[in-house]
Write a structure and sequence with these properties.
By secondary structure, the protein is an alpha/beta fold. The chain folds into 2 domains: about 180 residues, Flavin prenyltransferase-like (Rossmann fold, 3-Layer(aba) Sandwich); about 220 residues, CoaB-like (Rossmann fold), CATH 3.40.50.10300. Helices cover about 35% and strands about 25% of the residues. The chain contains 13 helices and 19 strands. The protein has an 8-stranded mixed β-sheet with strand order 12-11-8-13-16-17-18-19, sandwiched between helices. It is elongated. It catalyses: (R)-4'-phosphopantothenate + L-cysteine + CTP = N-[(R)-4-phosphopantothenoyl]-L-cysteine + CMP + diphosphate + H(+); N-[(R)-4-phosphopantothenoyl]-L-cysteine + H(+) = (R)-4'-phosphopantetheine + CO2. In the C-terminal section; belongs to the PPC synthetase family. InterPro entries: CoaB-like_sf (IPR035929), CoaBC (IPR005252), DNA/pantothenate-metab_flavo_C (IPR007085), Flavin_trans-like (IPR036551), Flavoprotein (IPR003382). Pathway: Cofactor biosynthesis; coenzyme A biosynthesis; CoA from (R)-pantothenate: step 2/5; Cofactor biosynthesis; coenzyme A biosynthesis; CoA from (R)-pantothenate: step 3/5.
Amino acid sequence: MRIVLGVTGGIAAYKAALLLRLMTEDGHEVHVVPTDSALKFVGKPTWEALSGRPVYNDTFEAVEDVNHVLQGRRADVVVLAPATANSIAKAAAGLAEDLLGNILLTATVPVVMAPAMHTEMWENPATKANVATLRTRGVHVIEPAVGRLTGVDTGKGRFPEPEDIWAQTQQIVAETQTGDQLAGRSVVVSAGGTREALDPVRYLGNRSSGKQGVALAKAAAAQGARVTLIAGAMDVQAPTHPNITVVRIESTRDLLDAVLEHAQHQDALIMAAAVADFRPATATNEKIKKHDDATAPTIVLEQTEDVLRTSIEQRAAGQPLPRVIVGFAAETGDETTSPLEYGRAKLQRKGCEILVVNEVGIGKVFGQDDNDVTILFANSHEEVSVRGSKDVVAKAIIEQVAAALA
């Protein structure tokens, strides 16, 4: 999940660092956006060290990325903690005086605010009206805690405990993501990379992390589907979800066997796994040894099974395989042909209903948290381009699968 953590100028800003730690320890990508006032309490080095990411707070920073718009679009949730009386008032008025204000105006995802202020501020009619306004717009304003405030004051307005904020935020996101577009449907998703053995310790593989496939499985389950996740080698953990069953595989042959077995009588098959297109023609049962003369063995490669094409051919031959099959094309361009053009040709060649095309390379897609894809359709449906976190891309793909099934 991609989170924007907005921090405003209150003494409770130091507790937002603890909230940030909870988010990152759960494996989420967090972008901290402090106000100038917040930086008087906790400096940029602290936020950058805890998040592992650069920290921007000025609208005119990273302008080449249109940062003031993209942050709100790419996030899965925006959390304002602490939310001071001043920041709540600005948000209610729609002011965009800094980067955080711009993000709040452009966010189309859940926005969660955790207030922290003196009791008199919280109970002031102006603050009450601002909170009411924000709630009518769909902003989730958490009730502040009761307890010790700054100085000797005690009352309502205390910053909620970071654990409580994080728990409520996760619940809000889960409720927002849960839908019924795929209720009663069954979906098979493949994820990760396949590995082709050379000897007992070496293999030929690829750079796939499994992040996009896992995001697709979670997005399908969130829409009510029963999901079978066929997982190859992955850098991320398989999701724990009551609607997701995980099947482990290693080689491309394993993947093909698992698809032909588990995709029967299912509604959709999403082939997000990155297949090793080649394997050693022969694999030894003993480790290949190095020699003192520095010579290296000659390794002859052969093509692996074409899982996507075979699935479509088996369906055409009468096997009860899904009527909606989604392929992926991880492409690089050349002097004459763009990745998208290669993708369009692959869609015609393979015969699947939907093909997701992305340009890959060093530092692109594989292992990254973001993706930039174009969704192609066999039925001449207009192409759909999606850019953002892999969760955002997964949601867009699942929406197209649901539409195709409907």
